[in-house]
């Protein structure tokens, strides 16, 4: 484990200690040989979940295995009902650093060397999105705007839909396992819709094809879609190394969800006050979120996701910053400017 990876864990130590389910983590880490049976005995002897997780994290940092960090991240991604949030929270550090490095260098010179350009592309390729191209804002918005209809219409066909997406390499076997871990068809569809935006723009095209193949029609979504034209339009906007990277950075800046990790981690119980400011129409139920998740971080993140889904284009960075300042959390607002 290198120093950056160690620091990424240390930066989120409190949230990890509070939110990790120790049993799930120890099972995965023992299977992969990171923890020993003696380690498990020591962990289980701790009185509280927080103390157990603190012991796990301490042993992770002390491990000499070169694969320890990757195995730890994979274990986090396998936690039921967490939707990879904890892993994404940790790895967001590397995404921000790569983007910041590129913008800093670009501001100094518009004529980057070819070697430097390749290095920047390599950095971005290592981000946790696991796709070669991020989904366009237009397609992300369509998934959000049609989420309710998609959830209603896909429930009966969710099995063949995700099997089709697995066969076309849009999702992985891990994603399939995550979807199948949900108890209801409704939850399975919602999980798939959460996964798609991070699987690239091809994921949108293949999802539309899956809907068409299984006779599912959602008005103004997969009706009359020319997938080749969509791909050509996207390619035109991303010609050239410089223009492609700048375009991707602009998309990142427009995607308010990139701030949700930091906001949720620092809000704690103030997420309820934030909800009262942002959800004026009262469309989001506090009790439903509290019943679903027990930790403040998960509750805050769930609220922010629901706010984005329900309010769509009205869920803006400007509104989020204004609401944070209104509840006396300027410290968080300053982090997302």
Note down, in words, how this protein is organized.
The protein is mainly α and 337 residues long. The chain folds into 3 domains: 3-87, Death Domain, Fas (Orthogonal Bundle); 137-253, Death Domain, Fas; 256-336, Death Domain, Fas. It is built from 22 helices and no strands. It has helices at 3-11, 13-19, 22-31, 37-44, 49-62, 68-77, 85-108, 114-125, 137-145, 147-154, 158-167, 173-180, 185-195, 201-213, 227-237, 241-254, 260-267, 271-278, 286-292, 296-311, 317-326, 330-333. One of its GO terms (molecular function) is protease binding. One of its GO terms (biological process) is positive regulation of apoptotic signaling pathway. Residues 101-127 are annotated as: Disordered.
CATH class of the largest domain: Mainly Alpha
Question: What shape does the CA trace take?
Answer: globular
Strand content: under 5%
Rounded radius of gyration (Å): 21 Å
CATH-level-2 architecture of the largest domain = Orthogonal Bundle
Largest sheet: number of strands, sense, barrel closure? none
The class by helix and strand makeup works out as mainly alpha
Count structural domains.
Answer: 3
CATH topology of the largest domain: Death Domain, Fas
Number of helices: 22
Share of helix among residues?
55-70%
Q: What is the CATH homology-level superfamily of the largest domain?
A: Death Domain, Fas
List SSEs in N-to-C order. Answer: HHHHHHHHHHHHHHHHHHHHHH
The average pLDDT score comes to 76
Give a count of the beta strands, DSSP E runs of length 2 or more: 0
Detail the poorly predicted runs.
105-117, 123-132, 224-253
């Amino acid at each position: 484990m290198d120093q950056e990876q160690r620091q990424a864990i240390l930066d989120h130590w409190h949230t990890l200690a509070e939110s990790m389910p120790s049993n799930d983590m120890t099972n995965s880490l023992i299977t992969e040989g990171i923890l020993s049976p003696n380690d498990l005995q020591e962990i289980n002897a701790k009185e509280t979940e927080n103390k157990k997780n603190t012991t796990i994290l301490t042993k992770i940092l002390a491990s000499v295995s070169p694969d320890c960090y990757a195995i730890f991240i994979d274990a986090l991604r396998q936690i039921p009902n967490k939707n990879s949030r904890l892993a994404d929270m940790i790895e967001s550090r590397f995404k921000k650093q790569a983007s910041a490095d590129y913008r800093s260098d670009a501001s100094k010179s518009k004529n980057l060397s070819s070697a430097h350009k390749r290095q920047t592309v390599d950095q971005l390729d290592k981000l946790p999105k696991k796709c070669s191209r991020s989904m366009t804002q237009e397609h992300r918005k369509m998934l959000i705007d049609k989420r309710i209809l998609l959830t209603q219409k896909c429930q009966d066909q969710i099995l063949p839909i995700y099997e089709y997406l697995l066969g076309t390499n849009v999702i992985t076997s891990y994603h399939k396992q995550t979807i199948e871990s949900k108890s209801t068809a409704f939850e399975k569809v919602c999980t798939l819709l959460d996964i798609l935006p991070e699987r690239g723009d091809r994921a949108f095209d293949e999802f539309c094809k899956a809907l068409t193949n299984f006779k599912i029609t959602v008005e103004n979504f997969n009706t009359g879609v020319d997938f080749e034209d969509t791909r050509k339009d996207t390619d035109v906007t991303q010609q050239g190394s410089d223009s492609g990277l700048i375009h991707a950075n602009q998309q990142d800046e427009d995607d308010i969800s990139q701030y949700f990790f930091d906001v949720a981690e620092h809000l704690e119980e103030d997420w309820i006050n934030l909800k009262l400011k942002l959800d004026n129409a009262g469309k989001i139920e506090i009790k439903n979120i509290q019943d679903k998740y027990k930790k403040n971080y998960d509750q805050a993140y769930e609220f922010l996701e629901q706010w984005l889904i329900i309010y769509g284009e009205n869920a803006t960075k400007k509104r989020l910053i204004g609401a944070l300042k209104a509840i006396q959390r300027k410290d968080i607002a300053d982090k997302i400017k």
